[in-house]
Amino acid sequence: MTNFGTLNRRNFLRTGAAAGLTLAGGGLSILMPGAVSPAAAAGRVLKINTLASAAAVNVPMQAALLSELPKIAGFGEPEVRPTKKIPQIAQEVIAGAADMGDADVASTLAAAEAGADVKIIGLSYSNTSQVLVVNASKVESLEQIAGSGGTIAVNSIGDFMYVMIIGVLLKRKIDPKKINFIEMGSSGDRARALIAGRVDAVPMHVEQAAQLAEKGNYQIMLKPWREYGNWFSAIVMTTDTWLKKDENKEAAVAVLKAILTSFRKTNTDYAWYKEQVGKYASSKDLKEAPDSLLKPVWQTLTTDIKAFPNDMQTMTADEFAKMIPVYKEAGALKGTLDLNKIIDRTYLERAIKELA
Q1: What residues in the chain have per-residue pLDDT under 70?
Q2: 20-35 burial code (b ≥16 CB/10 A, e <16)
Q3: How far apart are the first and last CA of the chain?
Q4: Which of 77, 101, 117, 154 is the most buried if burial means most Cβ atoms within 10 Å?
Q5: Which residues pair with 220 in a beta bridge?
Q6: Residue 30 confidence (pLDDT)
Q7: For every residue of 195-243, which 3-state class applies, written as one string?
């Protein structure tokens, strides 16, 4: 049976028109007995919050939701809801306004520590493709930025890249208070600020760094996967309350099967990945990127960063626990979380088994 509460307005009206549903005077005309609406035939439509933009590392997740999930019996194309404010992704899921979220680790763990109902059931990708970039003609080190009271622009204070940078500063005995951190939500705005010399360093994705390097002496100063090993940034989350219903358990497994399928295709098939980039990347430059730029990015993501583990084998409480001391030092978490109660591989293991 179609759950009309999960349909967005556009899909609802399209479905209603095809099935003879009409809205008039505030009333709803019901399907004739025996009739099957296109929505029912297509399957359940999930509400899934994601980031507002899709970089190279985000493409497999988008392909999973928009291409692979509808291939699974019982599920239609989900209502993917791009969200500019990263913490809002998890907040809406916790509030029950969305079924699942392609959310960031920092705000999700912070919400859990504050007592929110949170379950991490999968990875949007493993590690991170974001790096810290500087104009190497002006900046040679983090010590130099701190010594001059320089500025680093981040998406938001307390996010995973901010914490990563703070952790590196502390490891190198550099006082983070000597650096001026400012919030600048758009990676494009951050890049323009760096080019204009208004900031000294900015985090951006590896493909953006490669594109920027063509415009001048812009170089990567920090690579999180070399500093920490696995620096988690984005996860698939929902709530324990939502997972109590059997139909939602099945939905969780279906979404994870779609993501695993997309991960595996990305790892083994550059041509497939390139096709998905053309469909789902937000940047026109990335959509149209030549192989000379895109293939090295793909190789970095799949080989160096290992962003798409075939079985999400890095998603364990022990792996996440390695980050917690850094979050504590940065003041982003108190460190009181029982990760074993938050990270749940139950649905992931079912997905792996069913794909096998």
Answers
A1: 1-42
A2: ebeeeeeeeeeeeeee
A3: 29
A4: 101
A5: 133
A6: 37
A7: HHCCCCEEEEEHHHHHHHHCCCCEEEEECHHHHHCCCCCEEEEECHHHH
Cβ-proximal residues to 74 (8 Å cutoff; 6+ apart), any chain: 43, 44, 250, 254
Pull the structure tokens for residue 47. 């509400």
Which pLDDT score is estimated for 186?
75
**Looking at residue 42, what is its pLDDT?**
66
Tell me the per-residue pLDDT of 171-223, one tens digit each, with 9 for 90 and over: 999 999 999 999 987 778 899 999 999 999 999 999 999 999 999 999 999 99
Exposure string for 89-119, b = 16+ CB within 10 A, e = fewer = bbbbbbeeebbbbbbbbbbbbbbbbeeeebb
**In the numeric block, which tokens belong to residue 302?**
């799949």
Q: Give SS3 for 181.
A: strand
Report the distance separating Cα 292 and Cα 297, nearest Å. 9
Are 306 and 280 in contact by the 8 Å Cβ rule? The answer is no
pTM of the model as a whole: 0.85
CB 99 within 8 A of CB 165: no
Tokens in use for 113?
């520590």
